[in-house]
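Tutorial, part two.
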Amino acid sequence: MGFALLIAAGTVLLSLPFAYEEGRSLSFQDTLFTATSAASVTGLVVADTGQTFSYFGEIVLLALIQAGGIGFMTMTTLFALMIGKKISFRDRLVLKESMNQLSTEGIVRLIRKVILYSLVIEAVGTVLFAVHWMADMPVGQALYHGLFHAVSIFNNSGFDLIGGLTPYVSDVYFNAVSFALIFLGSVGFIVLADLIDYPKTRIISLHSKVVLLFSGTLIVAGAVVIFLFEFTNPLSTGHLNTAEKALASLFQSTSLRSSGTSTLDIESLRQATHFFMVIMMFIGASPGSTGGGIKVTTFAIMLAAFVTMVRGKQDVDLFRRRISQSLVYKAITVMFVALFIVVSATIVLSFTENQPFLTVLYETTSAFGTVGFSAGLTQELTGFGKTVIMLLMFAGRLGPFTIALALQSKAKKEHYRYPEGKIILG
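Running the prediction step on this input gives:
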């Protein structure tokens, strides 16, 4: 309900005449699509942001990105704290679920940290970008561009004001700042809090260890695959030298964690690269982050369960810690809910849009994973297709586990167990 209201408010504000540049406008559906894309921090667009919207419209988009990135419940808690309202135990329970915490202890303190970390990281990003752009534009404009892109990239939204980032494919400074913002936004606020507190506590939680290990592994593996697949592609990295190819591959791989910020023309990538990116976008970022997907922790538990089965062991474990059976069941639920949504949407759009299957699959996975990469389908979508993509972006920002919780019936205590049955597998 909160995200729906946020999108509705954004749509109303973006429908105002002064939200557009002179001579520009969008239909109601395209305005709703843009507001949904911003609030869900996806970044799929039907029109060039910088050329279509006025300063007012861009600020509205920025507010939607910020609210959508750190979460609706976080924003409402912030406003409640600002006006001096006491956070009730019921509110703390909702916040616990919203922030994927195991208990309500310290939840308000975590909310304060989320706000503080976000503002500090975005402020530093703004200054770094502005310094870079001051050589090409006035100071005020450089600061404005720095702010917009720092907020957009940290919140993994993929919106930009300069018509794409392909001119910066070889710019080491821009890539480094963007890489840092994307990574900090995608690992989640829980991990950031752990890392910042580590000098005092000397403790890194199991959650943070899993997130850091698997996020780093996925980024490196993704960079290697993209580097190899696109090495001789003249339309993407073929014209770059080896160092620039490595930089471009690393940036694209990092963006697959849910950023959607690209320094390459996504449409020009090979089909093998597109399919690999589908898998990476489906995995997504980390719980409690600004990204989407099934989350790297879900992928880690599924992989650990697979290894346990292959080795003939009984318990699923990570970093010498046993993973409970209920958590494994949750991971399976998240994966199958996500698969069902993506596959269903792909089948429907393959029928209605008359586009190549891989293009449709790429777009639906990008929307559900709130990544924002586009293989060129978004601007060609029919009205029905845009509605499907909007629903995917909305569902992706809520997350498959939230959807599963919303759909499940009230648990009842069973006073009996059925006799065990035998089924042959394989």
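The chain has a mean pLDDT of 87. In part three we will examine how such features are distributed along the chain.
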